[in-house]
Amino acid sequence: MSIRIGILGAAKIAPPVVINTARDNPDFEVVAVAARDPERAKAYAAEHKIPQVAKDYDALVRHAEVDLVYNALPPAGHARWTIAALEAGKHVLCEKPFAMNAAQVRRMNEAAAKAEGKLVEAFHYRHHAVMKRAVEIARSGELGRVQRIDADFSVPIPYREGELRWTREQGGGALMDLGCYPCHALRSVMGAEPKVQKASCTMEHGVDVTTRAELDFSGIPATLTCSMKPERFGANLTLVGEKGTMEIANYLAPQMGCRFSVTVGGATRAEPTAGDATYVAQLKELGDVLLRGKSQLVSNADSLGNMAMIDAIYAAAGVDRSFD
Q1: Which pTM was predicted?
Q2: Pairing of the two strands 236-241 and 244-249
Q3: Any catalytic annotation for residue 96?
Q4: How far, CA to CA in Å, does 143 sit from each of 107, 119, 139, 148, 248?
Q5: Which residue of 13, 26, 154, 273 is 20 to 30 Å from 282, comparing CA positions?
Q6: Distances (CA, A) of 157 to 6, 7, 151, 213
Q7: Which residue in 12, 42, 96, 132 is the catalytic one?
Q8: Terminal Cα distance for the chain, rounded
């Protein structure tokens, strides 16, 4: 028996995350979609061969033939419709960043606990073999005591009116859209929550276009950088230990090209970068969680910790992020 997916939002991200990947995964099938504009939903369903179109979001989350709701809405729609789906008895795969702030994440997690449903944040990169190996190496002791760790994710996102990532009220901003990844990568590798020492945001059109933060993991310094207007693409993760160094170029989507090396005692080795593409690995993991009782790799507590870190960085930078 397959898990039937309903998609909230006629989103560009849905094909790689669930539509295309579900076609090659017998655990899942995409059965319905809903969008703000019913005509857009119909066109989207026709384009992607989705059999049913729900009249609105409420109908989608209550759909009798949907087992799992994929919430592909902007962050401003995550808490409301994730909670509605959980209360309707559905499991939810919710896009990153999980919500607008940690207070919303707490309500989402409480709803999942009450409904006894699975709620999973779609941090696809975390399921790739590269990131799993990075965490293993960092915690193995091979590199000695960690001395510092740095992570970034910067990619050009040109401004245009109505672009969600440039719209504050929808959850836009570099830290929300891009920085949530290095936040999560740093926390995953260190297995701990940091304190924000200081942070700065360059603001344009009401959102942070570039954010930098200096962090502290119990005496271990760390930096985070993200930008929607960088000089060049960057998605790097570097850990320096007493005995050696780990460096990863493109930890976010290794299937699109990745360099992963470890240097110990002056000798450098290349770590493998092969493995299922991140979205494929994520859906496989979700099938194991929903059908075979595997524990979530990205737990609800993990998602709360990540959102709390984002809140703390904005607060340290003096950026108002007051949302209901």
Answers
A1: 0.96
A2: antiparallel
A3: yes
A4: 39, 35, 9, 11, 15
A5: 154
A6: 28, 25, 19, 20
A7: 96
A8: 39
